[in-house]
UniProtKB/TrEMBL annotation:
Catalytic residues (positions): H186, D256
GO biological process, alphabetically ordered: carbohydrate metabolic process; cell division; cell wall organization; peptidoglycan biosynthetic process; peptidoglycan turnover; regulation of cell shape
Enzyme Commission no: 3.2.1.52
Reactions catalysed: Hydrolysis of terminal non-reducing N-acetyl-D-hexosamine residues in N-acetyl-beta-D-hexosaminides
Keyword Cell wall biogenesis/degradation: yes
Enzyme class, spelled out: hydrolase
Residues the UniProt record annotates as site (Important for catalytic activity): D184
Organism of derivation: Parasutterella muris
Pathway per the UniProt entry: Cell wall biogenesis; peptidoglycan recycling
Function field: Plays a role in peptidoglycan recycling by cleaving the terminal beta-1,4-linked N-acetylglucosamine (GlcNAc) from peptide-linked peptidoglycan fragments, giving rise to free GlcNAc, anhydro-N-acetylmuramic acid and anhydro-N-acetylmuramic acid-linked peptides.
The protein's name in its UniProt record: Beta-hexosaminidase
One Pfam family matching this protein: Glyco_hydro_3
Family listed: Belongs to the glycosyl hydrolase 3 family. NagZ subfamily.
Underlying gene: nagZ
């Protein structure tokens, strides 16, 4: 593999397996590509993951960003050899009884999650989930910290602080909020029929509270019918007027995966990428659709700007990071792991007790 000197582009793509193919190497060196997102299928063990991330980073200068959906709970792509991060909802439930402990645990989860990823060469995770727990979303569920936006803000601030200690940026999702609509945007387009005032006074609160702590945001494939007929990720009303102007967000905006059914009503994949960029997305994700990636590469016309480079710089990892062996020598990391494991043991005990009845 010959390294190429090439600035990072706006396209986030995936790969098929646990090592790169010749075709994928060619894809990842394309000027439009700027990030690789990994999934569970790309992971066998820590050594394999480290080798894969090394090979990806070796393709480009500056190196491609390597990301993953690694939030905790049921959304944790890598498990063997990684600390099991509890669901964010379990932290929210703890907050109702022991707020200080919940805050400390959220910070510990952020640090451990980010530190273990970085020690394997993963640069970024799409977390935290800022959606409110209305108890009716099929896809959010226990990914949400809490129904109360203030509690979401507090715990997300702690989690992001822990991630920052490990030199990792964050991504708040799914703006303005995916917790109210019941449908799963992976398989259909959810519709949220609340007025803008309700969304502003509830779902948008964490985005306003976190402010400059949010280095990136991902909008929802949800149509808010009283505000705009287009899903939020394709809407200038949401991305430009609400997020950029009213809330003052200056970081990077990712689209959600454009291959999801929630994006299908916009048109074919190139139409979706055009619409996402036009609405204000800086980077677009196309996952599990290699043909769609090739269509976008062949047809998308994108112009680099100074503003794009500035926003992209905010999501890059900060500082060099130790190996997994080196991480085990870090007292703060070990203390955080012990806190998480003790909490997991409590959750398991409660689950076993409940099952007994």
């Amino acid at each position: 593999m010959e390294k190429v000197d090439r600035p990072l582009g706006p396209l986030v793509v995936d790969i098929a397996g646990t090592e790169l193919t010749d075709e994928e190497i060619k894809l990842l060196q394309h000027p439009m590509v700027g990030m690789v997102i990994l999934f569970t299928r790309n992971f066998e063990n820590i050594d394999q993951l480290h080798n894969l991330t090394h090979d990806i980073h070796a393709l480009r200068n500056p190196p491609l960003i390597i990301g993953v959906d690694h939030e905790g709970g049921r959304i944790q792509r890598f498990r063997e050899g990684f600390t099991r991060i509890p669901s964010m909802n379990s932290l929210g439930q703890l907050y109702d009884k022991e707020p200080q402990r919940a805050h400390s645990l959220a910070a510990a989860c952020g640090l451990v999650m980010a530190a273990e990823l970085r020690a394997c060469g993963v640069d970024f995770t799409f977390a935290p989930c800022l959606d409110l727990d209305y108890g009716q979303s099929a896809v959010i569920g226990t990914r949400s910290f809490h129904r109360n936006p203030r509690v979401v803000s507090i715990l997300a601030t702690a989690l992001i602080g822990g991630m920052s200690q490990a030199g990792m940026a964050c991504c708040g999702k799914h703006f303005p909020g995916h917790g109210y609509a019941s449908a799963d945007s992976h398989v259909e387009l959810p519709v949220d029929d609340r007025p803008l005032s309700d969304i502003r006074s509830n779902d948008e609160v964490p985005y306003k509270s976190l402010g400059v702590l949010l280095t990136s945001v991902m909008p929802a494939h949800v149509a808010y019918s009283q505000v705009d007929s287009a899903p939020a990720g394709f809407s200038k009303k949401w991305l430009q007027e609400e997020l950029r102007t009213r809330l003052g967000f200056t970081g990077l905006i990712f689209s959600d995966d454009l291959s999801m059914k929630g994006a299908a009503e916009i048109g074919e994949i190139t139409a979706r990428s055009d619409a996402a960029f036009a609405a204000g997305c800086d980077m677009i994700l196309i996952c599990n659709d290699p043909d769609g990636v090739q269509q976008v590469l062949a047809n998308q016309r994108w112009i680099r700007t100074k503003l794009f480079d500035e926003r992209l710089a905010r999501i890059l990892p900060r500082g060099k990071f130790p190996s997994r062996d080196g991480l085990e020598l870090n007292a703060n990391y070990k203390t955080c792991v012990e806190m998480i494991e003790a909490f997991n043991a409590e959750l398991n005990q409660k689950a076993e007790t409940a099952a007994a009845f």
